[in-house]
Amino acid sequence: MRIEEFAPFADGLDHPEGVACGPNGEVYAGGEAGQIYKVGLDGAWEQVGSTGGFVLGLCLDGEGAVYACDLALHAVKRIAPDGAVASYSSGSPERPMVSPNYPVFDAAGNLYVSDSGSWKGNDGALYRVRPGGETETIGTRVSAFPNGLALAADGGHLYVVLSNLPGIVRLPLAEDGTVGPPETVVELPRHVPDGLAFDVEGILYVSCYTPDVIYRVSPGGELDLLAEDWEGVTFATPTNIAFCGPDRRTLVVASLSRWHLTKGEMPVAGQPLHYPRFGG
User: Fold this and answer.
1) Which pLDDT does position 280 carry in this prediction?
2) Residue 14 annotated to the active site
3) Share above pLDDT 90 across residues of the chain, in percent, rounded to a whole number
4) For the chain, how many helices (H) and strands (E)?
5) How confident is the model at residue 140 (pLDDT cuts 50, 70, 90)?
6) Which residues contact residue 111 at a Cβ distance below 8 angstroms, ignoring those fewer than 6 apart?
């Protein structure tokens, strides 16, 4: 695609890094002072809550609650639809969260969370948060700044950005809860990959913190360029990405270095996500 096929919208946000699709296709984003925004594809937005910290990645459950990785508060915060904020997880007993970065739900309601650790410190990890908040550390073997996450459609693999590899790996997830060793999907020398999203054809979309590009990775591992913004205007420092809208065909891009989101219409829909309902 040409960069001209993407367009900024929802101007005036506070340097959004995280962007997510709600259960009805709505857009949510976070801000550098802990803001949680609900955004229409027409560009209208409202702030629906705040953690008071620094929001990175986020996702939602079936009741419309937002689960936000908060860098400043070292925790995943749950923001209820009425704006009430509670701590959902601050790490496992053996490893408190340091730099929680991105969350994703599986079909059983488990929340996988990347903790990036420190830049080039090789001290990151992954967590699995059981429904209710019980947390275990599962991924110390992917320590090179784990960042964006995405689950395969069948739930058999968790895909992980390792920004300091730099590249993408995947972890086999067994039905008994065990996690296999990382398998390299693609390496991206001289890039800093950040966000991930699958479409319904199994193509993995990868947004890069630098340079300002979005790639696609085929199921066979072939890499091709979706779009590039060498001027850093339409999307600048593209971090998280999400397929949004009622048909999940609108790819929304968060630009950490800007004050807007960007959108582009895709020829295929994004992979459906999991929105568990916990009865709360």
Assistant:
1) 54
2) no
3) 95
4) 0, 26
5) confident
6) 59, 67, 76, 88, 89, 103, 104, 105, 128, 129
Q: Is the pLDDT of residue 1 over 90?
A: no
User: Among 57, 48, 54, 11, which Cα is nearest to 32's?
Assistant: 54
- Contacts from 38-42 at CB under 8 Å and sequence distance 24+? 39/10, 39/13, 39/261, 40/10, 41/9, 41/244, 41/245, 41/250, 41/263, 42/9
The pLDDT tens digits for 31-85 are 999 999 999 999 999 999 999 999 999 999 999 999 999 999 999 999 999 999 9
Joined together, the tokens standing for residue 215 give: 């790639």
The answer to the question of whether 147 is labelled as a binding residue is: yes
Asked if 8 and 258 touch (Cβ cutoff 8 Å), the reply is yes
Give CA–CA dist 249/90, Å, rounded: 34
Question: Cβ atoms within 10 A of the Cβ of 122, count?
Answer: 10
| Residue 133 bridge partners (DSSP) | none
Of the residues 61, 194, 199, 229, only one is catalytic, namely 194
Note the pLDDT of residue 139: 75
Query: Which domains are seen in the chain, by residue range?
Result: 8-193 (2.120.10.30)
pLDDT digits (tens, 9 = 90+) for 16-31: 999 999 999 999 999 9
**Cis peptide bond N-terminal to 166, omega within 30:** yes
Query: How many angstroms separate the Cα of 231 from the Cα of each of 3, 199, 212, 239?
Result: 10, 27, 8, 16
CB 23 within 8 A of CB 244: no
Tokens describing residue 229? 């913004």
194 known ligand binder:
yes
